[in-house]
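Support request, please re-run this one:
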Amino acid sequence: MTASRITRGLGRMTMMFGCLFFAIGAVINGFAENVLMLIIGRVLLDFGIGFANQSVPVYLSEIAPFKYGEALNIMFQLSITIGILVANLLNYFTAKIEGGWGWRLSLGGAVVPGLVFFLGCFFLTDSPNSLLERDKFEEAKVRLQKIRGIDNVEEEFNDFAKASEAAKLVQNPWREILTRKYRPQLIFAILIPLFQQLTGMNVFVFYAPVLFKSMGFGNNASLMSALITSIVNFCATLVSIASR
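Re-run finished. Output below.
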């Protein structure tokens, strides 16, 4: 709800905010002493995920050459499935730690990808589109030349500039998106994630161990079942990439 406005004003800084939220939330969860701390940590994690999910695909689309844009966004999805697989793998092994503190390592360990992502953001540059949104025309052109590795970027830069000017003319974007012109895109943007949610896949992704345990599986069997599910999810993502 808030990340898009912050992205428009601050550009890639939104990703850094997401990393910090994620890292802080992971630390709070790792050292949690009560349910309230777990809830606060989880809320911060969700803010981090929300900021990253909003800004990273947009950044990839804006920074990549046209022919590679879709491929990079598919790699973003692949990275998510790899993360789910690694998380379930860690859950399986940390559950075997004697003393019952393995869950702290499992939850707190999420700080590692958060910090890696945060440090990586220092090596990223603002996209030309983002700079144009903030009226930094000369800097945007220089940045585009650096990204493309050539001096002659007039045609692409002019396309970016026209698109930016057209976007600024929209007075009420929420009302504009409801017009007939954008209705097909709006319907697809709603129905695609809706049907993905209705499959119940998120229940398996987030609560697989609890789900399998409620079906009568033991602790180890529940975690193994969750691991198998994430492996299938990863393999299915590879099939989807290959089909492109």
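The two ends are 31 Å apart (CA to CA). Residues 161 and 187 are 28 Å apart (CA to CA).
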